């Protein structure tokens, strides 16, 4: 019997914060990423993410070094990169129209729904903006897609330092 691994979808801001090891975000993101590296979860990423993650805040690296770091990051085998095909694009258009989301955010949601992700994790809407992704937790899709701040699966949360 094959057991499917949980599929996580990260918005571009989560990948950027993970690569940059952003204070207040980096440790949790790196903990989640280590679960993927250990084969416990899988990431699904739209090709749009690759286009959106363009630079990182690290003055000690050149643009070429940053580009190489980002490219190599997305070549990890536990990140399943999926194309934005016509069905995803049309679904995203409907999500954008119905919920007033930016088309790029709608593409992320449509991709997460298409590939049956357990959750979409993002910082988009952290300040409570009603037109950002976090405001639509459980409201899009059937069943509703879980859209949350990045966190470890419940069984792993005790692994984080206090």
Top keywords for this entry?
162 residues, alpha/beta, Rossmann fold, 6 helices, disordered C terminus
Summarize the helices and strands and which ones pair or pack.
Elements: E1 7-10, H1 12-20, H2 26-37, E2 42-46, H3 47-52, H4 63-73, E3 79-82, H5 86-99, H6 103-114, E4 119-121, E5 147-148
Parallel strand pairs: 1-2, 1-4, 2-3, 4-5
Helix pairs in contact: 1-2, 5-6
Brief synopsis:
The chain is an alpha/beta fold and 162 residues long. The protein is 40% helix and 11% strand.
CATH top level assignment: Alpha Beta
Radius of gyration based on Cα positions: 16 Å
User: Based on CA inertia axes, which overall geometry fits?
Assistant: globular
Alpha-carbon distance between the two ends: 37 Å
Overall pLDDT metric: 90
Query: What CATH architecture would you give?
Result: 3-Layer(aba) Sandwich
Task: List unreliable stretches of 5+ residues.
Answer: 155-162
Structural class: alpha/beta
The percent of residues in helical segments reads: 25-40%
Largest sheet: 5 strands, parallel
Strand order of the largest sheet: 3-2-1-4-5
Count of helical regions: 6
Strand content: 5-15%
Under CATH, the topology is which? Rossmann fold
Order of helices and strands: EHHEHHEHHEE
């Amino acid at each position: 019997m094959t057991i499917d691994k949980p599929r996580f979808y990260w918005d571009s801001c989560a990948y950027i914060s993970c690569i940059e090891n952003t204070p207040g975000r980096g440790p949790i993101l790196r903990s989640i990423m280590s679960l993927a590296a250990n084969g416990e979860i899988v990431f699904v990423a739209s090709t749009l993410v690759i286009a959106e993650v363009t630079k990182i805040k690290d003055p000690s690296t050149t643009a070429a070094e940053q580009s190489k770091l980002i490219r190599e990051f997305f070549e990890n085998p536990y990140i399943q990169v999926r194309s934005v095909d016509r069905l995803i694009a049309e679904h995203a258009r409907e999500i954008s129209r119905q919920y007033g989301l930016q088309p790029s955010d709608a593409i992320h949601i449509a991709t997460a729904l298409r590939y049956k992700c357990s959750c979409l994790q993002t910082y988009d809407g952290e300040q409570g903006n009603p037109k950002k992704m976090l405001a639509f937790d459980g409201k899009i899709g059937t069943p509703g897609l879980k859209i949350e701040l990045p966190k470890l699966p419940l069984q792993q949360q005790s692994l984080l330092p206090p």
